[in-house]
Amino acid sequence: MKQSKEIVKDFNIAKFQEDLIGWFTAEQRDLPWRQDKDPYKVWVSEIMLQQTRVDTVIPYFNNFISKFPTIEHLADADEEDVLKAWEGLGYYSRARNLQHAVREVRDEYGGIVPETKDEVSKLRGVGPYTTGAILSIAYGVPEPAVDGNVMRVLSRILFVWEDIAKPKTRKLFDELVYAIISHENPSFFNQGLMELGALICTPKSPACLLCPVQEHCRAFEEGTQKELPVKTSKKSVKAVELAATVLTDESGKVLIHKRSSKGLLANLWEFPNIEIQKDLSKEEELTSFLTEKYGVEAEIGQPFTTISHVFSHLTWHITVYEGKIRGKVEESETLKLLTWEEAEQYAFPVSHQKMKKAFKERQQD
Ligand code: SF4
Fold first, then answer.
1. 316-351 pLDDT, tens per residue?
2. What is the pLDDT of residues 39-82, one digit of tens each?
3. What span, in angstroms and rounded, lies between the C-alpha atoms of 54 and 197?
4. Which of 24, 27, 151, 157 to mutate to test the pocket of ligand 1 (most atoms within 8 A of CB)?
5. Can you tell me the distance from the alpha carbon of 234 to that of 314, in angstroms, rounded to the nearest whole number?
6. How far apart, in Å, are the Cα atoms of 53 and each of 64, 80, 187, 273, 278?
7. What angle do CA 5, 10, 15 make, to 5 degrees?
8. Whose CA is nearest to atom 2 of ligand 1?
9. Which of 57, 149, 192, 306 is deepest in the core (most CB within 10 A)?
10. What's the pTM value of the predicted model, to 2 decimals?
């Protein structure tokens, strides 16, 4: 692996900074989290933007900040309300970690986001990228904020052919950013790289002819921009088959269950569901699962929709059945029989929101 010093040896750092920052100053998108430098808002936006597109994040961010405008508001909020505000964004551990970390900031730092790398990076859910983003954007500290986008852009500009899927390559990019970041305006430097990756230097079709840093770009010079970055393919994704049921009683109330406080989609609400063993029928499995797990006698009807949901490491394929509750339901903290209107107050993962929608549409037919 080449050393960062060698890579930037003949690179015109000052001119690159000027071109990048000049372009960002003139062309940056007007995004709600760019209206002030409040570290809390920068933090919330960066967490939301992980694995989620800007267009999707905007309404969530506005709603979240109007509900929890300060660190104190978020720290004092019920987790249930925080998850509800996050509903649909996915990767819910981000919301739980954010609230946990915000409570740390309230309790240990007097409600003010700390300004040092050591302290910020110890907050729960705050990795090296978010640390760099908060410190550079909110506090003007020249720290790298390197994610996949930035690695793509810099691998093209600086002609780096290392595999960006490898952790040690990330370290190389951190060093490269340390070497070329503007100390006068690290915020616009980092945001400029991110914006360039989002608008111009996109993964499949970089718009090199419109690029403000084209004259610095070695991949453009060599005509290899589409071959970079080097990235080994992802590990295979496991497929899991599930059966779920939307169970209603005689009055039309629906049964929902709260997921465990640990693991995937922790603490969100769902319709009862089970992973299918291949040699039993799904209806049989669901019926015995409902009796054994929840003490609920039910009659499982027809499947009315199938839903697939892709996580980073697995895919759910869910067949969803309608069903009728027979007899009484013992409600608890984690099992509730609610009207549909009441159920609207509870946070469901995206796949279960889709079930809800499909069930309601079917009833209207
Ligand atoms: Fe990306 Fe092309 Fe600009 Fe190079 S010239 S940074 S490849 S858009």
1. 999 999 999 998 999 999 999 999 999 999 999 999
2. 999 999 999 998 889 999 999 999 999 999 999 999 999 999 99
3. 13
4. 157
5. 12
6. 16, 24, 21, 29, 37
7. 110
8. 208
9. 192
10. 0.77
Q: Which protein residues touch ligand 1 with a CB less than 6 Å away? A: 153, 156-157, 200-201, 206-208, 211, 213-214, 217, 219-220, 225
Structure tokens at 103: 């409570």
Query: Residue 73 carries which side chain, given as an amino acid letter?
Result: H
DSSP track, 39-59: HHHHHHHHHHHTTS-HHHHHH
Q: Give the H or E element holding residue 255.
A: strand 254-258
Instruction: For 132-191, give the DSSP string.
Output: HHHHHHHH--------HHHHHHHHHHTT--SBTTSHHHHHHHHHHHHHH--SS-HHHHHH
Q: Which two tokens stand for residue 296?
A: 């609920």
Q: Which residues contact 253 (CB under 8 A, 6 or more apart)?
A: 337, 338, 339
β-pairing verdict for 273-275 and 314-326: unpaired
Amino acid residing at 52: T
- How far apart, in whole angstroms, are the C-alpha atoms of residue 157 and residue 200? 13
Evaluate whether 196 touches 156 at the Cβ level (below 8 Å).
no
